[in-house]
Amino acid sequence: MHTYTSLATKETQTVTQMQLPHIQIKDLNVHIEGKHILKNINLAIPNNSITSIIGPSGCGKTTLLKTLNRLMDDSKNVKINGSVLVNGEDIYAKDAEVTHIRKKMGLLSQRPFPLPMSIFENITYGPRIHGQRDKTVLKEIVETQLKNVGLWEEVKDRLHHSATTLSIGQQQRLCLARGLAVQPEIILGDESTSALDPISTQTIENLLIDLKSEYTIVLVTHILRQARRVSDYIIFVYNGEIIEFGKTEDILLNPQNEITKQYVKGFIS
Amino acid sequence: MRLRILKDLWIRHTFRILLLLTLSMVVFIGIGLFIKSLPLLKDQNLFTILSGSTWSPLKGQFGFLPFITGTVSVTLIALVIAAPLCLLSSIYLVEYASALLKKTVLPLINVLAAIPPVLYGVWGILFVVPLISNYIGPIFGSPNAGYSILSGGIVLAVMIFPIMISIMVEVLETIPPDLKAASLSLGATRWETIQKVILKKARPGIIAAIVLATSRAFGETIAVLMVCGNIPQIPKSLFDAGYPIPALIANNFGEMMSIPHYDAALMFAALLLLTIIFLFNLISRLILNKLEEKA
């Protein structure tokens, strides 16, 4: 069970030598309706790289992701113990300000959820909430972020149309741009391509790879091939525990744990 | 084998006929009322009837304006009171309240819906009417007996709370949690999310809830009749008595039928009520369609 610790510590050390990790999880335990969903999670997620959380469905991957920006808070009957440090600050500390924490992390959900407003307003929603009122600045933000996700050419003539007029793939890119507009440091993706066609999936994957030089990216995925394509590190979660954590090629080609081996070979899913 | 298919066919046609029968009721009622009110319509011009403000059946004067204004003002007062209150309560129930509170409150609201209208009327007479006559009226320097369109509006508002709240709660619960998460994850507070995302997304549903409650309010009879004074005049202030159309019909039908055109006038009142409700629903449906298109 604890083979991952040695690997994880090694990673952690190399990371801390360079700089403080963006996200560090210490002794995290999550109970939902009395069930122990996440057990003793200890992790340091490497900066400026893509880390994929993989594991069979119902193992707690999404819960793990959502504890990172405190979105679990809103679900009823949830008990969270332990700490999640973002830039060294515990986001579960009593005085932690939740909107401030969430602003640091862009979230890309399973299906695109454009806000019920125009394309333009979707992007400016975040910046406006955080006090940006200057029209020229807002216009600039819209253009930059839409260019960032390769959507500008496709939508520049209909910025004021409803966001729901876009295709699903375009909507997901819009959601990514919307998240980037609040200048986060971290991007969280919860099976973000599961509703998309192969071409849109590829676009999103390539975008994430381009973005990792500036952001720390954590993805939940149930597609091993996707984890192989995009991620630098893999966390394998099984039954609420982290079984293995390490570089993508190590986990996929040379798993240390028997369960990881079976999962990677496709015997459990 | 063949019998099974025949049965299937038979069921399809019978059920269709049953559906048509239900729908045709509305048409039949409309036609029936129209025929019954023809004597009045033949005798007097429709415009004079609708715009006349004198109700004096013995002199043959059947002006419906007092009743139209009575109905509209009582309903409007009820809406102004009920809509914001219900909206805020449902937001609280869906977005903030604990699961336990929600589980307790919603069945209670359904009990509120099951109370017979006449009890609301009694409550209105015992509580709302004195409140307005002794306390609220004097504040505005307007002495009154308390039997007023304001009393009617308040009682009516309380009566439409349950339907409005339960529909609004249902509407708000259809908003996908991931949409809320999208707004929250951008650093919005709960209230910002409610105002800018949830209410916007739920707007067609909220309007539909208000429309349904209004349709019910238009036709509510007994409770309103008991508290709003029933004087055929155009109410000039909230403290004036009014006389809504349903009250007119309920109070007078079966009495004084020997007066010429009196029964035709009451039938016309019923037709008028039906038309108002029909037009109101039609217009709101059109508005809703527009809104849904936009959303």
From TrEMBL, chain A:
It comes from the Bacteria. InterPro entries: AAA+_ATPase (IPR003593), ABC_transporter-like_ATP-bd (IPR003439), P-loop_NTPase (IPR027417), PstB-like (IPR005670). The lineage of its organism: Bacteria, Pseudomonadati, Bacteroidota, Sphingobacteriia, Sphingobacteriales. One of its GO terms (biological process) is phosphate ion transmembrane transport. The keyword Transport applies. It comes from Sphingobacterium paucimobilis HER1398. One of its GO terms (molecular function) is phosphate transmembrane transporter activity. The keyword Amino-acid biosynthesis does not apply. This is Phosphate ABC transporter ATP-binding protein. GO terms for cellular component: membrane. Residues 23-264 form the ABC transporter domain. SMART domains: AAA. PANTHER family: ABC TRANSPORTER I FAMILY MEMBER 17. CDD domains: ABC_PstB_phosphate_transporter. Keywords: ATP-binding, Nucleotide-binding, Phosphate transport, Transport.
TrEMBL record, chain B:
It is a multi-pass membrane protein. The keyword Transmembrane helix applies. It is found in: Cell membrane. It comes from the Bacteria. Residues 68-284 form the ABC transmembrane type-1 domain. The keyword Ion transport does not apply. The chain crosses the membrane at residues 15-35, 64-93, 105-129, 149-172, 206-227, 264-288. InterPro entries: MetI-like (IPR000515), MetI-like_sf (IPR035906), Phosphate_PstC (IPR011864), Phosphate_Transport_Permease (IPR051124). Keywords: Cell membrane, Membrane, Phosphate transport, Transmembrane, Transmembrane helix, Transport. CDD domains: TM_PBP2. Part of the binding-protein-dependent transport system for phosphate; probably responsible for the translocation of the substrate across the membrane. Belongs to the binding-protein-dependent transport system permease family. CysTW subfamily. This is Phosphate transport system permease protein. The gene is pstC.
